[in-house]
Amino acid sequence: MTKDVYDFDLFVIGAGSGGVRAARMAAQRGVRVCVAEAAALGGTCVNVGCIPKKLYSYAAHYADAFEEARGFGWVTGAPVLDWERLKARRAAEVLRLNGVYQGLLEGAGVTIVQGWASLLDEHAVQVQTQGGRRTFTAHHILLATGGTPSVPDIPGSEYAVSSDAMFDLARFPKRLVVVGGGYIACEFASIFNGLGARVTQLCRGPQLLRGFDDEIREFIAQEMSKAGINVRRDTQLSSISSTTDGLELTLADGGRLRADTVLFATGRVPNVTGLGLEALGVARGRDGAILVDEGYRSSLHSVYALGDVTARVQLTPVALGEAMVLVDRLFGPAQRFMSYDYIPTAVFTHPNIGTVGFGEAQAREKFGRVTVYRNSFKPLKHTLSDSTERAMVKLVVDTASDRVVGLHMVGPDAGEIVQGFAVAMKAGATKATFDSTVGIHPTLAEEFVTLRQPVA
Ligand SMILES: Cc1cc2nc3c(=O)[nH]c(=O)nc-3n(C[C@H](O)[C@H](O)[C@H](O)COP(=O)(O)OP(=O)(O)OC[C@H]3O[C@@H](n4cnc5c(N)ncnc54)[C@H](O)[C@@H]3O)c2cc1C
Q1: Ligand 1 atom closest to 314 (CA)
Q2: Which class in CATH covers the domain with range 8-49+85-148+269-331?
Q3: Which CATH entry fits the domain spanning 344-449: 3.30.390.30, 3.40.50.1460, 3.30.70.1130, 3.40.50.450?
Q4: How do 391-398 and 116-121 pair as beta strands?
Q5: What does the alpha-carbon distance between residue 145 and residue 19 come to, in Å, rounded to a whole number?
Q6: What pTM did the predictor assign?
Q7: How far from 289 is each of 43, 114, 151, 382, 440, CA to CA, in Å?
Q8: Interatomic CA distance for residues 406 and 59, integer angstroms
Q9: pLDDT (0 to 100) of residue 456
Q10: 20 Cβ closer than 6 Å to some ligand 1 atom
Q11: Does domain 152-265 have CATH number 3.50.50.60?
Q12: Using 50, 70 and 90 to split pLDDT, how confident is the model at 2?
């Protein structure tokens, strides 16, 4: 390799999902790797994303569990949430994970530098550490700097917080307004509703969760409303002001709302500010996303980028997958590419959504004729729990090939269920294969292999 010329073979900026995986896998191949991180190891997912969010989602589910337990004969008192204890327990777990990441990197022989990094040229990086500026050279440089919340520019936006702040709010908000209709907005609305806040969700468009199957969108909006969230569609926020009774929100239609906390979950933009990309002419797209080829190479030959900073599929497993493909491509032996087909995903609303493949409308556009199977029902558990929550399962089949091209559900543990089906769909499973698969009884998942009557 290039041992004599550069300090490192690979320099990674950003120790989040993608950066840590790339650094660790490359070091395990025997190459010399350095990673620079400005904040805590583990990035968004570990510190302010997937992990703390899922922990809080578990916390919120207990509210339902306490309620439902009565229907099964349990006699319980009124449950009380200790917000300080939940925050402290989450913080301790995140700190433990930071240490795990440090151990993984150091164990693989990666050099960790704490500080803000920027590109000096196509083989040099400068890191602003506590002890001053340090410069490193490397044969390859990987930008894995992730994304950051984007905040709408309206009067009073300084009174609102982003998802980063929600895990550590000094006081639990009795009244929460969530602005946004995407998955992060819906998840926080569900979590804080479950934890006991009175939640209003403002969605600019006619429906939540753009990009998901339309029936699933309608179904989850109804379930979230039934659970107590005031979902307001076609509603735009104009301004926020501070009053003696919390924050006052003015809507575009003149309406007013009061809140203790306003969460802007209005999208995320690539983290590129201060990276020195302009000076080097690195090609960028919308919101500054770094443009890369299918091997994650940017317009500079020795500089690569992956994960959220490329603003393609913003999910942790995708960043991990891209990192492993990149390491294989750079340090051999495989010259493979990442497959972006049939990426499954979950939304941790209450109830959960799990989805893989095409929504019905998307499938019609892509395949022409499709056959749709759907069922919605009360899950067995709720026959005794007295909960009115319902579940939905849906299959979209390409009529010509019989291949199942879309699988969607709303219901408990949807992510756990859909992960398994995603393997079958990746392998090209047809509806006939689903039909010949024996169900596991009594489960919710068995509905997917017992759907027989098309609805469209
Ligand atoms: C609230 C929330 C919930 C989410 N839930 C899920 C989920 O359930 N499932 C899922 O798959 N995904 C989820 N995501 C998305 C997921 O977290 C991201 O897709 C993933 O973390 C992207 O990884 P990354 O490596 O691209 O960037 P990140 O993990 O964001 O890492 C980037 C790192 O780079 C560092 N950095 C940035 N600039 C510099 C610099 N100049 N110098 C040094 N360091 C720098 C940052 O501090 C950060 O640590 C969620 C995101 C959010 C915000």
Answers
A1: 19
A2: alpha beta
A3: 3.30.390.30
A4: unpaired
A5: 8
A6: 0.97
A7: 18, 24, 17, 45, 45
A8: 31
A9: 84
A10: no
A11: yes
A12: very low
